[in-house]
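A quick aside before the break. I want you to see a complete sequence-to-structure record at least once, exactly as it would be stored in a machine-readable document. Don't worry about memorizing anything.
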Amino acid sequence: MEFSAEAYLWLKALHTISVISWMAGLLYLPRLFVYHAKAAAGSELSETLKIMERRLLNFIMNPAMIASVVFGGLMVADVNFPWDGGWMHAKLAFVVLLLAAHLAMGRWRREFAEDRNTRSHKFYRVANEVPTVLMIGIVIFVVVRPF
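That is the input. The structure line, written in tokens, reads:
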């Protein structure tokens, strides 16, 4: 598959927009979990957080994740894509870890929805840092291309 230079730039723009939206959710959802872990099950706060978490995951994070993968995949499918360094392999490894974090957050959201959370707010404070660390690595791999 080969895209024109203009089409490739549009794919890159759409990929960037999708990733920003996805990252916003990956950074915000665990923050909601921190507050939810402190709320009593069945309380008004807990029920409000359940709604917020479900909407964030279903209406922002999932579509943004899918769009990120689709637009990124299309860019990588271009025959002119630069596969000449290990930076892309490292980036893709970190993207796989981001996908794993996304899936874990989906599982945690279901546990909260069913009032089955057993983790502390401290766990979610640490989990909140994982997407940030992965994002930093991805940006460095893509921009600096250290190898």
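Two observations worth writing down. The mean pLDDT is 96. The chain has one domain: 5-143. We'll return to this after the break.
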